[in-house]
Amino acid sequence: MAVHNQIHNQILRPGNLSELFSLWNRFPNAVPLAGGTELIRSFRSRVKGNYSNSPQEDGGTGACMQSGSAPDSACRVYREQPVLPEEILSLEKIEELRNITRTERYLEIGAMVLLGEIIALGKIVPNAFSLTLQGIAGPLVRNMATIGGNICSGGDTIASLCALDAVLEIRNSGGSRWIPALRFCSMPENLKKCELLTRIRIPLEEWSYTVYRKFSTFGSESPEHSFTAPASDLPVKDADSRDNGGVLILIVQNQKNMLTSINVVFAGDLLLRDKDSESFLEGKALPLDRRDAGHYRKFWEAYLDNLKYPGLLLRDKILNAIEMGIAGLSD
Ligand SMILES: Cc1cc2nc3c(=O)[nH]c(=O)nc-3n(C[C@H](O)[C@H](O)[C@H](O)COP(=O)(O)OP(=O)(O)OC[C@H]3O[C@@H](n4cnc5c(N)ncnc54)[C@H](O)[C@@H]3O)c2cc1C
């Protein structure tokens, strides 16, 4: 994609983390660039002007060139083009961010590992996480986009990482800290200035039952190749039609005939997890009594009513998916 800016972009390319933080010290406004699939989209803006859109005028590239003085032949069109941050901190050359480690207890993934690479790890990847990754865009985007970029841009992986009780490593020039994904993703300003997400650690526990549902904008479901547009891009009709979609994950552990653990997370415009409803089911015999699915739904109804989120359409989709998910554990 051709990128035309009125300002010059400076792309900084540190070779390791210590170089990155010393560059960040000098250029504190530099924005990290991982795969670039979201950064370029989010910085795109409508730039008004006189543009040539004929192959002859732009040297045959088909790119839209901004002209200083509008020649008569220039088409007066409005084009959407990326306006990137002035200083970009490319993470591309930092090998430490591409590591994948597996121990008996967890899978640890560097922030620059591509979504497609994680899927290719196969069975060691917890089912909820793998299904979520497979539901993101198509293979082309998945082989450019990184897990760090997906988390930091509020992408689909958040629900599964929170349900799996993953922890995230955050670094700054002074050191690093680990923070639960659920806490990190619940904070509006989760990264402070000059902080980087470096590693994702996912506990490797046995989950015997997994439900993954992706709701796209306007409440319709399209698990593959769909993308939730930002609210500002949507035509505003009523409160419901402005609901962005989200991802619901329901995972269950059991010991013999007893449900020992259930984690249910919805990540959309808000991150939702109701621990009271989880405790209601823990310790119950499997298969569950059918009435428990209805009771469980009521917990979530009360939880959503309290939050006044989301609108009716998405609310129904979430509640039905939860009820059906629990019903799958009944006889
Ligand atoms: C056609 C298309 C379809 C898509 N479909 C989906 C979809 O279905 N689901 C979905 O979730 N997303 C989707 N996306 C959005 C996007 O591709 C993903 O969220 C992607 O994972 C972002 O990763 P990236 O490496 O490209 O991030 P970038 O674009 O490089 O960065 C995204 C943001 O995160 C910051 N960032 C990146 N890495 C770090 C880090 N390590 N530490 C701190 N900040 C960091 C950047 O500064 C930037 O603000 C789609 C995008 C396209 C173009």
Task: Label the CATH architecture of the largest domain.
Answer: 2-Layer Sandwich
Spatial gap, N to C terminus: 54 Å
- Percent of sequence in beta strands: 15-25%
> The biggest beta sheet, please?
5 strands, antiparallel
Q: How many separate structural domains?
A: 3
Query: Count of DSSP helices?
Result: 11
Based on DSSP secondary structure assignment, what is the total number of beta strands?
16
Radius of gyration equals 23 Å
Structure description:
- The chain is α+β, with helices and mostly antiparallel strands and 331 residues long.
- It folds into 3 domains: 81 residues, no CATH class; 109 residues, 2-Layer Sandwich (Uridine Diphospho-n-acetylenolpyruvylglucosamine Reductase, domain 3); 119 residues, Enolase-like, domain 1 (2-Layer Sandwich).
- The chain contains 11 helices and 16 strands.
- A 5-stranded antiparallel β-sheet has the order 8-9-12-10-11. Strands 13-14-15-16 form a 4-stranded antiparallel β-sheet, with helices on both faces. A 3-stranded parallel β-sheet has the order 1-7-2, with helices on one face.
- β15 and β16 form a beta hairpin.
- α9 runs antiparallel to α10 and α10 packs antiparallel against α11.
- The longest helix is centred in the C-terminal third of the chain and has 18 residues.
- The N terminus is likely disordered.
- It binds flavin-adenine dinucleotide.
- Flavin-adenine dinucleotide binds next to β2, α2, α6 and β12.
